[in-house]
Amino acid sequence: MNRGRLLEILRPLVAVVIGLSLGLLVTLVAGENPIHVLSVLLKSAFGSRYDFGMTLYYATPLIFTGLSVAVAFHAGLFNIGAEGQLTLGALAAAVLGASFAGTPSWIAPILATLAAFLIGGIWGAIPGWLRAKRGSHEVINTIMLNFIAGGIASYLTLYWFRNLETQNPETRPIGPGFAISQWAFFGGAPVSWAFALALLTALAVWVFLWKTVPGYELRAVGQSEGAARVARIDPAKVRILAMAIAGGLAGLVGVGEVLGGAGKFKLGFSPDYGFIGIAVALLGRNRPVGVVAAAILFGALHKGTADLDLETEHVTRDISLVLQALVILCVSAEGLFHLRWLRKKRAAQ
Amino acid sequence: MKFTKFFAFSIAFALSSTNARGADEFKVGLVLDRGGRDDKSFNAAAFRGANQAQMQLHLNLKTVEAADDNAYETLLRSMAQKDFDLIIGVGVAQQEAIKKVSAQFPKKHFVIVDAEVKAPNVKSLMFKEHEGSYLVGAIAAMSSKSGKIGFVGGMSIPLIKRFELGYEAGAKSVNPNIAVLKNYVGMTSEAWNNPPKAKEIAMQQYQGGADVIFAAAGASSSGVFDAAEDKKKYAIGVDSNQNWIKPGLILTSMMKRLDVAIFQACQSALTGSFKGGTENFGLSNNGIDYALDEFNEKLISPDMKKKIESIKEAIIAGKIKVPDYYKQKG
After folding, report:
1. How far apart are the CA of B292 and the nearest CA of chain A, in angstroms?
2. Between chains, do A306 and B71 touch, taking CB under 8 Å as contact?
3. In a domain, B294, yes or no
4. pLDDT per residue over A143-159, tens digit each?
5. What is the model's pTM?
6. What is the ipTM of this complex?
């Protein structure tokens, strides 16, 4: 491993440490012993099988959204729409599961997974198409589509597929054949085969991007559109494909949430997985392995901070959000710095 | 903050020495809804009751708020795994989590507010919101000069429909021709915590001619009160006594006495008389009431008060049948 490569791995880690230190400083100001806070964080993220399971449960959707953002990044696109894509993907899985509740279990989860990927993919392809054919910027379009996805999900959930047995806004439960089993090892935490699927997906994304022709074309367009054109690559087609894949990956969040977790689509289930996915991709340097590692780190952070309120005297929910945000901020700042550095290096060549 | 805590502890300590069972060791966990303890409404009422229990019964209280809807179960379970004796979940969103965790920890005691969980170790606290809403609906109609009143709900769920239906029936009992404008803040749990949107809706209703608005929207209600101040029109508070928030503009508040209910639940758990099952709170046992204090005494004339009290008595006596959304469905 050469020095540059080592630096590339070390720098994001340093960013995490800085962010965490700043966050712990805030807890010190709030009147708490930072070392105690850190030990609570670690204990509640990794302390028991259940805690570790919850960490992996929160990491699973972040792997998918991180991969989604990373794939778009490689094509030179900024996917801020993962939140909308995952909303519709999860809704698609839930609606299919509720509407065809009798589907046998050997095929049902596969169908629901495909539905989540497909619907998320379509939702991602729309801004891809708009960018490729109309030149309208994907950042704006994906943000706007997030709102539309939220509206569609609310409407369908409340007026078409509402679960009448509860007051909470959610769809009817999926059929028993659709449920994927949770791993008993984690003592009741909803870790399911969706986590394995996330790891497999990361592997598949790596194979696609670095071992296939379309993946090569995708990266070529991202690195230099002009050069890609010369090589007879159609940037428009590549961009639509990249955004469709990005959307599909985000849609797969529904597998863990609906099939492996809640068993239904709950309005507002995602604590901004789509947006945290951007930080995950930045921290993971847009590499699948990095994304998986970063997602587990952020999952641990989410789980750890969630329990601070309970375990300490003075750290409330708001302060734990500040702590979490500081880590994300440092990671993103460092990641953006890295992007600029890459661009400068490229410009110099 | 520190001083009050020290003060509370010293009182607790002084009194606990006379208590046979070390009540300080009795731990109560309170898991609040998304609005948070400062919503001045629903969660604030729950927090007040638990705090009162901490002060007067000298028990050890820990209050937490969930970061997302998946976190309820984790928090409840963490509390059950620790040495908490009584765990209280506030709000319908925790129904499923309480059901699951209470089954896993059959020896612990749980309380759920606003939803029913049928288990021997779970006490469900239910309120007859429709009764109180009927009462404030009548007050709204008595005070309205325009013949139009408004209703701003949080989320369009059966619980809030129950407020709406009672409110409208109460208003129509006073003035059969009154028009009721009805709107909801949102469709996700964010609706309980979105004052700007609530304000926008209330402004529209005031502009549409309403001169009294009943806000049943948790922390969002403060937006309705802001609109009332801008337009110099009346609003009605909910869950806690909110008359003080905009003195002279809040006609009254439909009080849902979570504080009383939760205090009683803590007391029963502490004395060992805790029983599972559903407890109903309504006008008859002061679990539901309308607020009358120095901030709104000028708005409620003695004549009005007499009428309101007679309606209240008639509801308690069963002479007035208030429509109940929960029963209508089934």
Report:
1. 31
2. yes
3. no
4. 999 999 998 998 898 88
5. 0.83
6. 0.76
